[in-house]
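Worked example

This section walks through a single chain of length 667. The input is the sequence exactly as stored; nothing has been trimmed or padded.
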Amino acid sequence: MDLQTPLTKVAGIGYSYSKKLEYLNLFTVEDLINHYPFRYDDFSKVASVIDAQIGEKVTLQGEIWSIKNIYTRYGKTLTQAIFNDSTTPITLTWFNSSWIIKQIKTGDRLQVSGKLTKYKSKLSIMAPTWELITSEEPKLTSEVSGKNLVPIYPETYGVSSKWLRTKIAAILPQVKVIDPLPNEIKNNMLALPDALQKIHFPQNWEEAEKAKERLSFDELFFIQLATLKIRQAWQKKQVIDPLKIDQKKLDQFVKKLPFKLTKAQEKVLTEIISDLQKNTPMNRLLQGEVGSGKTVIAAIVSYIVYLNGFKTLFMAPTEILAFQHFETLKKLFVPLKISVGIYTGSKKNQTGDIVVGTHALLSKKLETENIGLIIVDEQQRFGVEQRTLLRSRAKIPHFLTMTATPIPRTVALTLYGDLDISIIDEMPIGRQQVKTFRVPEKKRKDSYKFIAKQVAGKGQVYIITPFIEPSETLVTVKAAKIEFEKLKKIFPHLKLDLLHGRMKGKDKEKITQDFREGKTQILVSTSVVEVGMDNPNATIIIIEGAERFGLAQLHQLRGRVGRGEKESYCLLYTSPHVEDRRLKYLETTFDGLKLAELDLKIRGSGQIFGKQQSGRFELKIASFSDLSLIEEIKAEVQQLLKKNPSLDKYPLLKAKLQDIASAVMPD
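Given that input, the structure is written out below as C-alpha cells.
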C-alpha cells in the first residue's frame, strides 16, 4: 500500500469517517501511521480503590451498576456510570460521548483507567479510558490482545483510540516503509519500520521508549536539515540592489525619538542595517521582552525603507495590537509628513507609506505596489501559508519578524535555522520591575481593598480570567463574563468594562481606547490583552486560574503593567485546592528567557509554541525541552553536510528533505 493513498480509498474508511479524521489532520495512509499515541494505559497494574490515593492515576476492574446520559441546560451531554470494583462505588463521567451507552450496559465488567478524584465527597474518574472484560480478561481488540500497554491517541468526536488502533493494526503491515537515514547516522537506533511498529504496539515500556527515541530523532533531525534548505532557497531566490543608508537623516530621526535607544537596540539595529546593505533579502527574527522596544526598531527600519522609495506592510495578529502600532507609528511619522494607514476587518485605509493591519492585509483588494519591507509582529501567531502569501507581495521582500514570546536560544536556532536571529536583551531605563505575589484565597477581600486604594491613587487594573464563559467541566475556574458581573457589585462606584476575543473589532477598539484614556478603572478580560495593550497608568494585574497558563504567558501578561513610573503589582490566584509550585519562580524571576527554559523543563514545548506555531514544523512526538538531543542532532547535521553538502550520496535523505522543505516553504 502506498503511503500517499488517501484514507477514503482504504477499506473500511468511508466519507463520513474521512471528514472526522480531517480534524486530526489525517488524510493519507502516511498521516495515519504517523499519528502517534500520546500515552499508554498499563493494564498490567490493576489496583483496588481502597489502596489508591486521590489524584493518582489508577487502573481498576469492576462492574457497571448503572449508566445514563444527562443533558445539561447548556445543550451538552454527560454520560455517567456507577462502577464498583467490589470494594467501593465510583462515578465515571464522559463528556459529549452519548454513544457510549450503546457500548456499555448495566452488568458489564470493565477495566477502566484514569485519575481518581473526589467531588462532593464521592469518588470519581473523569473521562476514563476503558475496555470490556470477558472471562475476567480484558476483551481487547485483536491487535492489542495479550499485551499490557494499550496505546491512547489524540482523538476527536466519533474517532476513538479503539477505532484508530484497529485501523493502524490493519494498515501498517501492508505499508512498505523505507528508512531514509544513513547507517552512520542511525547508529544503534531502531530501523524506521520497527520504530513505527513498536510505537503503536509495544510489548513493554523499553520498546516504547526505543521507538520514541528514533521517531523523536527523525523529527528534530529533519527540522535542522529543512531550515538549512529554506535558508539556501531564500538566499538564491533573487539578487536585489542593496538599500542606501542616509546616515544623516537616520541620525536625525533617532535623535528625535522620545527616548534614547538602549545598547541592545543599537546592536540589533546595526545587524538589520547590515542585512539591508546586502544584495540578498533580509530574513531576520527579532526577539525581545514585552516593552523592550521592538516596535521602535521596526519604525526605524520602515524609515530607512521609506527613504529608499519603498513602502512597508506591518502585520499584527489582533486588532488591538494593530491599532496600538498604528497610534505609535503615527506619532513618530506624521510630523515628518510620512503617512501611516490602517487595514483591518473594521477599518480599511490603505493609503500610507506604512500600512499597519491584521490578517486583512492578505486581502487581494489591498494595493501592494512598491512594497519593500514586510514586518510581522508576534509571528508565531500566524500560519506558514499566511506568512508566505504576505511575503510574496513585496517587490523587494525584506522580511522582519518579531516576537515577545521568550524562546530559549538553542530552541530558536533549531526552529528558526532559516532566519538570522537578533535579541533585545536589555530593558529601557525607567521600566518598572513588577512586584509579583501568589495570593491565597483567604486574602481575596484584602486584594479588593488594595485595588480600591490603587484606583483612588489614579491607578488602573486588569483582571484576567482563563475563560470567557463558565465551563461545565471546570466549575472552579473563573470566567470573564461571570467575574465582570460579580465585580460590578463589589466595586459599584467604579467604571468596569469587559473585553474578550469574540467581540466585534469596533467594540474592542472602543473598550481599549476608553481604558487607555482612563475612562475605565477596571478591565476584566481574557488573555486577549497578552499583546497590544499599552497603558502606562495600569498598576495592577490580577490573574485568575494562574495554574492554567504557562510561565512564559504569565510573564507576557505581567508585562501589561509597570509601563509607567508608578510601582506596579501582579497578583496570582489559583483555582480552589490547587497548589502550583511553578508560580514561585514568577515571584522572583523577571527574565523571560529563564522562565521559558523553566517552562520547557516543567511543562514541555507545547506551552511555548501554540497550535498555529506548530504549523511551521509540527512536532508529533519529539520535544523542544530535550535540549541535549537537539545539541546532539545539530552536531550530526553539521558533520553530515560537511562530508556531503549536496546530499547526493544520500538520495533517500535528499528526497525526504525536499518533501519537507517544499511543504514548509511553498514556491
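What to look for: Residues 247-279+293-403 form a domain with the Rossmann fold fold (CATH 3.40.50.300).
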